[in-house]
Amino acid sequence: MNNKLQSFAKVLLKEQYDEFMKMVQLFNVDRRTFVSKHRKMFEKGWYDIDSEDNALNEVDVMLCFAIASRRMAIADWSGEEYPGQIKRSITMMLKHYGIECFLWDTKKFEDSLDWDKIRRGDYLPLLFRAMNKRLNKDGYSITFCDTKSDCFHYAVLPTAEFVQFDNAELEDYLTIISPKIYNIYLADKGKEFPKIMLYLKKKFSVPLNEIKEFCSKDKILLGIGNSIIVDEYRKEIEKLGGKIEAEEID
Q1: What is the mean pLDDT of each run of 10 residues along the chain (250 residues)?
Q2: Are 193 and 214 within 8 A, CB to CB?
Q3: pTM: predicted TM-score of the whole model, two decimal places
Q4: Do residues 173 and 215 both lie within one domain?
Q5: Is the separation of the CB atoms in 144 and 125 below 8 Å?
Q6: What is the pLDDT of residue 53?
Q7: Which domain range does residue 210 map to?
Q8: b/e sequence 104-135, b meaning 16+ C-beta within 10 Å
Q9: Which residue among 132, 150, 177 closes a domain?
Q10: Which intervals hold domain DUF6630 (predicted)?
Q11: How confident is the model at residue 54, as a pLDDT?
Q12: What are the C-alpha distances in Å from 244 to residues 101, 189, 218?
């Protein structure tokens, strides 16, 4: 385990860090036996240990251990499994810091949303951002472990500890980021306009007879996302000859 990953695990897991390190040692000695013994832990972390496509590593062990220990939780990108899922899991994490009851004002957040403009996948980034602002007032921050998957791995850390790792790449497939989100716009369609037009037609399911009018806008909102999503859009659009602009949502 590299030093950066180990340092983050110590901050995330606190008094359970030593237990985790003992597990990692056993994992590296005999992975087959380890996986069989800790199958329930991997299931809680949504890790399919039976899939031939999955190459289990120390990061996976850390994430699943953190989830099983309620130091972290996981959610699908598309939305909550049930109303209040995110609030409930973060409230449970705060108990590790001696906070038994935390007052959220999610109704105010819900009332502020323009639901006509919220697309599938937009809600959770907005919710995490609002909850993070509330937590910041008490000195805590929501922390995302971005694994380049379609899930949110999220935890809560004291802000003073989180800033040590903000935007740190711990492994090629693990980056620590904040819940900051951005409106991502197509700002320059480039010279190869037909490619961009086809891209927009597929993305927004715009009828062919309306696509030219749709594409005539100076700036087109492609989506809402964190810094990782911004980079993905940038690479995607630049391949087509265009450019994007990202504006942080206050």
Answers
A1: 94 96 92 91 88 80 96 92 93 95 81 76 87 94 91 96 94 91 91 88 90 89 85 91 91
A2: no
A3: 0.82
A4: no
A5: no
A6: 62
A7: 182-248
A8: beeeebeeeeeeeeeeebbbbbbbbbbbbebb
A9: 177
A10: 20-164
A11: 66
A12: 42, 9, 12
Measured distance CA(80)–CA(128) in Å, rounded: 12
> How many Cβ atoms sit within 10 Å of the Cβ of residue 212?
11
Q: How many residues does the chain have?
A: 250
Q: How far apart are CA 98 and CA 79, in angstroms?
A: 28
Q: Which two tokens stand for residue 135?
A: 């937590």
User: Count of domains in the chain?
Assistant: 3
On whether both 172 and 196 belong to a single domain, the answer is no
pLDDT of residue 237: 94
Residue that the structure tokens 């502020």 belong to: 112
Number of neighbouring beta carbons within 10 Å of residue 36: 10
DSSP 3-state assignment of 91? helix
As a whole number of angstroms, the distance between CA 63 and CA 9 comes to 9
What b-and-e string marks burial along 187-206, b requiring 16 or more CB atoms within 10 Å of the CB? ebbeeeeeebbebbbeeeeb
pLDDT given at position 232? 85
Same domain, 218 and 145: no
Are 200 and 219 in the same domain?
Answer: yes
DSSP code of 172? T
Task: Please tell me whether residues 100 and 56 are part of one structural domain.
Answer: no
Closest of 15, 54, 6 to residue 168, by C-alpha: 6
Residues linked to residue 247 through DSSP beta bridges, in sequence order: 183
DSSP 96: G
